[in-house]
Amino acid sequence: MAPPRKVPVGPRRLVRKKRKPPNHHIRVVAVRFLLIAALVAAGLKLIQVQGFEAEALAAKAERQRMTGIDLPAHRGSILDRNGMALAFSVESRSLAFQPRAQRKEIDTYNKNLKDGKVKGEPLNFDTETENMARFMAGKLDGVVSEGELLGLLRKDANFVYLVDNVQPAVAREIQEEYPSIISEYRAEREYPGKSTAANIIGVANWRTDDRDTSKHDLHGLAGLELLRDNELAGTRGHQEVATEEGNDGVVIPGTERDVRPAVDGYDLELTIDADLQYFLQQALADYVGRARARGGSAVIMDARNGEVYALANDKTFDPSTAGWDPEAMGNPAVSNAYEPGSVNKIVTALCAIDQNITSPLDVHQVNGSIPVADRVVHDAWNHGPLPLTTTGIFAKSSNVGTLMLAQECGPERFSELLKKLGIGTRTGVGLSGESPGRVPPRGQWSGSTFGNLPIGQGLMMTVLQMAGMYQAVANDGVRVPPRVVSAMVTPEGERIPEPRPEPVRVVDAKTAKTVRDMFRATVQDADTPDNGTGVPAALTGYQISGKTGTAQQFDEELGRYSKVKHWITFAGILPADDPRFVVGIMLDQPEYVGGPPEGKSAAPLFHDIASHLAQTYNIPLSKEQAPFVRLVEP
């Protein structure tokens, strides 16, 4: 018999069983699938990154921290003809600072110190900069004061330059003590001769690259430094390097790549003799002062090849100091043309002898004046008819006699000779700002024009062109255009000569020698009337050939030639019997009327220059004294 069934006590609890959604299983499967897919994808990516792309990603990371660095080129030197350095570069540093960045860095450090993130002592910007200024001033040995440095270090600016021209070793010491000081490479230009040849050499200084203001280069600002800047400066190099992140951009050794080496500049060898250049500058400036002149220029050339040994102006500047006077930085000896006066009479002499119009001892009846077209030309001294020899016409500088011979020569042949002598054309000496001078175009000559040109008025030339005329006479009739640069020298030491100028045959050798001998009488010291106009130019023991000149300056206000303003000139050959040097001198507005003797003639200055040349270069004495020549027939 079955046991009785138990009946529950109390109310019945009904518990409803939860039913699972019909898509629950599908969701679980989907989630599991997505998780598995994600893990698989991550695994595949890991394999790709660590395996296939590891090298490329590493290269990309390295590129992100690569920095371009310019490699400076050494600027070439400028040397005189004996190898003496007139300009050269020395390595130095410029020190700079970032005041705002340093303030911010100190503030951040102090905050971290307060928050317990770092350990140490609190820093004070003013105290730090004070210590920094004191340390630097001591190391810089008075170049800049502590006060000046402190003012710059505390300046409210992102970036300031503190001092230039710091020796690399000193800059290194300062940086080791204060790593926040920035050191930038510089190459300072040195001019050991100071003002010697400064108007030729010019000056170079730092200037910013217009394409990138963060790049600074030493570039020419005037003279040969500017004109030959491309050859002297060389070419900057470049390389890519990796830097350590967070360590002020310190270069990681061995990471240099894509290196393009710098190409150093070429040296320039000049024809200039530095010692002679110094002498000429001093002698000219002294004479200009004694003549009370507004200015003056002079040149010394090799009589055979036209090389310029010295080229001077009375005013110059010192490129090794700051604050140059722009008016003193030019080169009037090549840029300023003037009317040469009687020095130009050598053109008529060459024509007259070359065309067999006359010979040195022929006698000419020369009056005190001569009509030319609508005007009358006078001699510089009053006289009646004088029986002057051809040599006497030039030695006594007769305007009338010169015009008599020039008229026989004719305008066409005279004009052609001016061209051959280089008047009206730049010499191509190799210096900037050269003037071509001026000769009126042949088609514009009037009747009176030919009354001016033979006596050196109405045309203009530079002192270099004037000396060039006499160089042609000294060199047996062949003019060699002057030059001032003889060669370039590569960084490897290879010497590359400058192209030699093409010589110009002006007259034959016989004509040149005849005229050269005639012009010896200019310095002939004899009883009047057989003395020349340039007696003070004579040099004992040497034959001197030359010519004095005086030209009136045109007064723009009066509209005519002035009676008180003149150019005084002298051109001479040393020695006349075996030419070695040619000297040209010009004085601008000396005190001609009522002034000192130096204001009336440049012959004494020629004597001093010739004497110095003879001693310096051991020029042999002339084999015989220049013979006495009759200038005025009894």
Automatic annotation (TrEMBL):
This is Peptidoglycan D,D-transpeptidase FtsI family protein. The lineage of its organism: Bacteria, Bacillati, Actinomycetota, Actinomycetes, Pseudonocardiales. It comes from Actinophytocola glycyrrhizae. It is found in: Membrane. Keywords: Membrane. Its main location: membrane. Residues 71-247 form the Penicillin-binding protein dimerisation domain. Belongs to the transpeptidase family. Residues 296-609 form the Penicillin-binding protein transpeptidase domain. The keyword Flavoprotein does not apply. The keyword Membrane applies. Pfam families: PBP_dimer, Transpeptidase.
